[in-house]
């Protein structure tokens, strides 16, 4: 029961403890009462912040914070759903330091620009032997995910389980398509995941698979409905897989876990087509 409750930490927003019991609050609104102290969970959720003797928080869901208004008074943090939790006065400095580190780490990750995503993909130039060169580019996975909660869960899952990869999220397949048309070979995504619920995703899929430059990129089409027609259309357009993902968030993470385990650790993806080959086939 306990291991299942914390199997996917990204699903947990915060925990509230009292005596030897703890309430686990999940991002989908569920609450689970467990006969274990908050200290028990603090040891097993090292990425969470102990903001108060009664509260343990997933930093991803923190939206804002307020300093203690006066001497011997508690500060507070606000979560994405509007929940406000106290921050004890003696923990305030430590929590601010932890939040600063978390924000720097988050801003260092690749984030998609809503219009193109290109600025996030271009690493800074550094001087090397008197010449400007780019830093080594971390391999990226491009994902179209309009659902904010699922997108956040995916970000956390990747950070916890595949830290050597960077996730680039797009709200629409049109935004991904625009970014893809301007990307350099060195910044080519290793995998693309499209949201089949968006009508433009099929157009983007067809563009990817009809292009000599992009067609080798493994491209997955996700759909939340068991649509035979959509699956047929997806495979006919060249999708490497058409996968039904459930609306239940726990099962959603489980499905993604299997997808990434296969494509990132078992499958051997083809190399990106070089500029010379592109010129030959153009």
Written account of the structure:
GO terms for molecular function: DNA binding. Residues 1-101 form the HTH LytTR-type domain. Pfam families: LytTR. InterPro entries: CheY-like_superfamily, LytTR_DNA-bd_dom. This is HTH LytTR-type domain-containing protein. The protein is an alpha/beta fold and 282 residues long. It has two domains: 2-107, OB fold (Dihydrolipoamide Acetyltransferase, E2P); 109-281, 3-Layer(aba) Sandwich (Rossmann fold). It contains ten helices and 15 strands. The protein has helices spanning 2-5, 38-44, 92-108, 118-121, 148-161, 173-181, 201-210, 228-236, 249-266, 275-281, and strands at 12-18, 21-26, 31-34, 49-52, 55-57, 62-66, 75-79, 84-87, 125-128, 131-134, 140-144, 166-170, 191-195, 219-223, 241-244. The strands form four sheets. Strands 3-2-1-5-4 form a five-stranded antiparallel β-sheet. A five-stranded parallel β-sheet has the order 12-11-13-14-15, sandwiched between helices. The protein has a three-stranded antiparallel β-sheet with strand order 6-7-8, with no helix packed on it. Helix 5 (148-161) crosses helix 9 (249-266) and helix 6 runs parallel beside helix 7 (201-210). The protein starts with a helix and ends with a helix.
């Amino acid at each position: 029961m306990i291991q299942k409750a914390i199997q996917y930490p990204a699903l947990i927003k915060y925990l509230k403890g009292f005596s030897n019991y703890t309430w686990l609050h999940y991002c989908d609104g569920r609450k689970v009462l467990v006969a274990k102290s908050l200290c028990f969970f603090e040891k097993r959720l090292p990425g969470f912040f102990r903001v108060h003797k009664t509260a343990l928080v997933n930093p991803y869901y923190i939206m804002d914070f307020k300093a203690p208004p006066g001497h011997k008074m508690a500060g507070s943090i606000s979560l994405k759903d509007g929940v406000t939790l106290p921050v004890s006065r003696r923990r305030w400095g430590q929590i601010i330091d932890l939040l600063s580190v978390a924000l720097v780490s988050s801003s260092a990750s690749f984030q998609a620009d809503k219009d193109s995503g290109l600025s996030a993909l271009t690493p800074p130039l550094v001087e090397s032997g008197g010449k400007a060169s780019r830093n080594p580019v971390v391999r990226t996975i491009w994902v179209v995910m309009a659902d904010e909660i699922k997108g956040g869960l995916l970000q956390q899952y990747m950070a916890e389980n595949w830290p050597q990869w960077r996730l680039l999220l797009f709200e629409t397949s049109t935004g991904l398509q625009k970014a893809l048309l301007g990307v350099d070979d060195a910044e080519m995504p290793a995998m693309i995941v499209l949201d089949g619920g968006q009508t433009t995703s099929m157009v983007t899929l067809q563009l990817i698979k009809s292009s000599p430059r992009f067609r080798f990129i493994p491209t997955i089409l996700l759909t939340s409905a068991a649509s035979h027609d959509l699956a047929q259309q997806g495979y006919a357009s060249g999708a490497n897989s058409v996968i039904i993902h459930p609306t239940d968030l726990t099962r959603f993470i489980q499905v993604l876990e299997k997808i990434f385990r296969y494509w990132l650790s078992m499958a051997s993806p083809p190399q990106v087509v070089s500029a010379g080959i592109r010129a030959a086939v153009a």
